[in-house]
Every structure is written in C-alpha cells, then in structure tokens.
Amino acid sequence: MGCGHKDDKASLASSQIASFSHQPHQPPSTPASKEVWKKGGRMFSILLAVHLALLACTLVSSGAFEKIAVHDYDVFFLLTVMMLIVIIWIIFYLFGTSRCPDAILCKDSHAGPIWLRGGLILFAIFSLVMDVFKIGYYSSFYSCLSAIKIIYPIVQAIFVVVQTYFLWISAKDCVHVHLNVTRCGLMLTLTTNLAVWMSAVTDESVHKAHSKLKKNVTEEIFRWLMKAGMRSSSVEECNCNSQICQIFKNGYFWLYPFNIEYSLFASAMVYVMWKNVGRFIDHHSHHIHRLKFRLFRRTFFVGIVLGLIILVSGLGVLILYEVQVNSSTESSKKSQALTMYYIFNIVCLGFMSLVCIGGSVIYRFDKRDMDRHKNPTRTLDVALLMGAALGQYAISYYSIVAIVASTPRDAISALNLTYALLMIAQHTFQNIFIIEGLHRQPPKEDHKHDSHQKDLYGLTFVNINAVSLRVPDSGSTLASSTASGAEAIHPSDFVRSLTAPKKMNWRRKFLREISMFLLLSNIILWIMPAFGARPQFDNDTELNFYGDSMWPAIVDICLPFGIFYRMHAVASLLEVYIMS
User: What does UniProt give as the signal peptide span (predicted)?
Assistant: First the structure.
C-alpha cells in the first residue's frame, strides 16, 4: 500500500491529488493550523530563561562573599539540577520530538556549520579533561567536603557529552511539533550554559586575581578569594599537600578557558535552534551554498605565513611574560615584561587594523551581491561581535581615562595608552570587515565562469589563426563556427571574458589571505589573556587610580567578553575565508 502510494506520487496526475491530501507539507497553510500565536510561545520561553538566569546569577554572585549565607555548594546544587533537567529534555527530544511525523520539515543550511561544530567538539574534549581533573581534586577531600562537589563535575561531564551529541546532529533542525516544549527546553539549555559560564568565569577570575593581587587586596576581597576555592570553614582542615592534588588543582584551572568557550559556543548554537523552531524556509529564496573548505587552494600563503609568525611570536611573549611577572619579584623584570607585552600587541594590533582597512577597501570593488535573506545565524554572529566587543571597549576607555588623568607618566604608560587606542581601532575595523564579509554572496557561479573560460581558452588557442586573420578592420563581430551554439563573439568580448574572472579571483585571493592572517592573529590574542597574560592586573596605573576594589571588578566583568570576542571572531573569519 505504501509502495503503491509512492509510485502514484511519481506520476503527474496523482501528484496533484497528493498535493491536496497532504496539506501539512505545504508551508503556506501549515503555520495557521499548527501555531496560532508564535510570539506567545517565544515570550513564555524567554520569561522562563530570564527568571532562571537571574536566579543563577544571584546565587553565583552571593556565593562569592563570605558574609552572605550562600555557599558554593548551593551554587553547585542548582547547576546540577539544571543540567539534569536539560539532559532529560534532550533525551526526550532525540527519541520523541525529532521522530514524530512531520517533526522536521526543513533544515537551516546556515545553522551549525561544520567548523563551528568542530570547534564545539574541541572545547568539549578539553572540558571533559577539566571535569576529570576536578573530580580528582575534590576526591582528595571527600571526607571534609560536601558530596555535591564531587557529583557536580560528574553530572557536568555527562551534560557535555549529551549536549555535544545533540548539537552535532540537531543544530540545523527546524522543529514543527511540540513547539512550546521545544522552545522552553532550548531556553533552559541556553540558560544552563550561561549559568555554568558565569560560575566558571567567577571561579577562574577569582583564582587569577588571588595569584596576582594577594598583596594588594583588602580583607573582604581576600576572604572572598579564599572562599572561592573551598569553604572557609574547611580551609585549614582540607589542605592540598600531595603532588597529585596540586596537579589536579592547577590542571583544571588551566583548562577553565576551554570550558568557558564551550558554554558560549553551545549557547550561540542553541539560540539559533530556538529561533528556527516553527520556521519554514523558502527554498526559492534560501539558497543552499555547498562550500568546500580547501585551506591550501587559491592562496599565496602570505596570510598563513605572517599569521604563524605572529602566533609563534605571541607564544614566546606569553611564556616570557608568565616567567618574569609571576615567578620574579623584581620590579625591573616586571617592567621589561610589560614593555615586551605592549610592544608586541601594538605591532600586532596596528598591523591587523591596516589589514582590516585594506580588506574593507577590496570589498568596495567586489562585484558580488549582498545577501539580504533572513539568516538567524548571521544575525546572531553580528550581534555577538558587536556585543562582545563592548567588554574590551570598556577596559580600554577606563585605561585611557586613568592614564591621561594620572601623573607622572612613564614609558609604560605611553605604551599602555597606545595599546588601548589601538585595541579600540582594531575591534572597530575588524567588525566592519567581518560583518561585510558575512553579508556577501558566496562565489556560487565560479563553475560557470570556469567552464565558459575553458571554452574561450579552447577557442582562442585552437583557432588563434582564424581569430587573428579573419577579424575585419571595421571591428564587426566574428562568427565562430566552432563554438557551441554558433554565437557571435566580438574580439573585445574575449578580453573581458578572460580577464574579468581572473580579476575577481585576485580579489578573492587577497580576501582569503587577509582572513587567514586575522584568524591566526585572533587566536594568539585569545590565548594570551585566557592563559594568564593580563597586564590590567600587573600595571599599577589603573589599580592606583581606581582602587584595588573597583578596578579588579571592572576587569573581571569585562575581560571574559573580550576573550569570547576573539574566539567568536576566529569562527566568523573562518566563515569569511570559506565564502571568499
């Protein structure tokens, strides 16, 4: 019966009958029958996410202070419950919602690209290693710590595995059943990732501040720092004296940046899925571009070589900075490390700014059309780029005010001022370059140009004598009997047809070189602050101007956004590179 139905649908007459009998497959009539008020379902899920986010933020911030009767294990308990609920909903989605008839009528080709999912898996692997280190560290104190501290990393590891698998196979789904349940589940997943991110940022920032500002903090902040690692009532009772315990402790703190980026990447992908719930995609206007990632094709290797030089040089600067600042108490070595750090960043940021300006100029001569179709993924990318840049903008402007208003001014202050100004300029020019690249149409007609160019080359070199000898002096058209279709071709058309694609390829090659250079440069600018190189804590100008309470708070709030900006810029530049 089913096979006969498929055979009937193959014919023209029965396909018309089937079009009337299968109304759910017609996008224009489906939304009215399945969802009456789309904004109502979205609003309810947003309210749920806002309340949960505020609750998690309240507990995370309250658990950082000793005077408030909220402990860190209270935060762990809330996060554990949220992750367990999300795991249950994901299982329900995978084995229930997604297998319903007509559950996924279409997929968003722009959502969850392979490079974004690959980055998610990379961060997930490091997050699992971090959870293993955290389990080993807390297991050393199982007799004097709450059991939730051991349960939490176990549940988090399961949550990372289940969520990564869910996003890998379902990131492109446009669900059309269980709409409100799916929206609430996705918003709960997004809020859980943001809550885990807030907890990780607080713990990691407190650890960095404790190692750098122990001599300059007040008593209240010092107690806060001591309380972030474990309960104040058990600090003396639970000492980490063994070598394996120290390895676990230092290991999971070094892996915190990967877990932070994993939570943000997952949140971005979940948000796109939430936007696609109940969405119908018009395949006539929603072009699917199957772009192939070929790293070593159509490139001169200039951007890759320069980017690798910046990357390797930055790693050397980071190692020297960590050794001279954290391992030495001499002020002269600290000044040398800050000078070296600022000079490297000034050169890198200045070069990146010039390259971004050059890329924007090349876009002015690019003949590709602008992509104005609805694209939730691109809209989110632009919003995250603009929003995350505000964190670094804030730090830079605070530094500029402190340097200009402070006296006396030395060489490090001048370098710091130049560094802050270039940071603002580089973020601005890079955002312009990336946003313009994301809104360009991919080179979807390259194969047409290539085939046409190949025919013209064959016509030119095979019939070169005929073309050169039979062209009249009056410049009339040449009838080519050898070309397919017997088209009339003017000699000047040969030149335009042969040179126009070549010029376009030159522009695209330069754009690919620029994208690859910026990608590698952003990687090192992400690595340096994420793994300890934070001159905001080592330069005394801002600390003396704003005080030892206000300035660390400003940096701790704004710097995670700046770090996330770099990693999100890497993903966006990779997309620009592939689309060029």
Answer: none
Contact between 64 and 228 under an 8 Å Cβ cutoff? The reply is yes
Instruction: Give 201-238 as a DSSP string.
Output: HHHHHHHHHHHHSTTT--HHHHHHHHHHHS-GGGTTTS
State the pLDDT at residue 571. 87
Nearby residues of 535 by Cβ (< 8 Å), 6 or more positions away: 338, 341, 342, 416
Query: Exposure of 481 by Cβ count < 10 A (0-12 exposed, 13-18 middle, 19+ buried)?
Result: exposed
Q: Is the dihedral of CA 402, 406, 412, 417 positive or negative?
A: positive
**CA neighbours within 13 Å on the CB side: how many for 351?**
17
Angle value at C-alpha 262, between 259 and 267, nearest 5 degrees: 130
Cβ proximity of 437 and 580 under 8 Å: yes
Neighbours of 15 (CB within 10 A): 11
Residues 6 or more apart whose Cβ sits within 8 Å of residue 517:
302, 303, 304, 306, 307, 310, 352, 355
Handedness of CA 258, 263, 268, 273 (dihedral sign): positive
- Nearest alpha-carbon partner for 183 in 114, 264, 270: 270
Q: Indicate the pTM of the whole model.
A: 0.73
Q: What is the mean pLDDT of residues 26-44?
A: 59
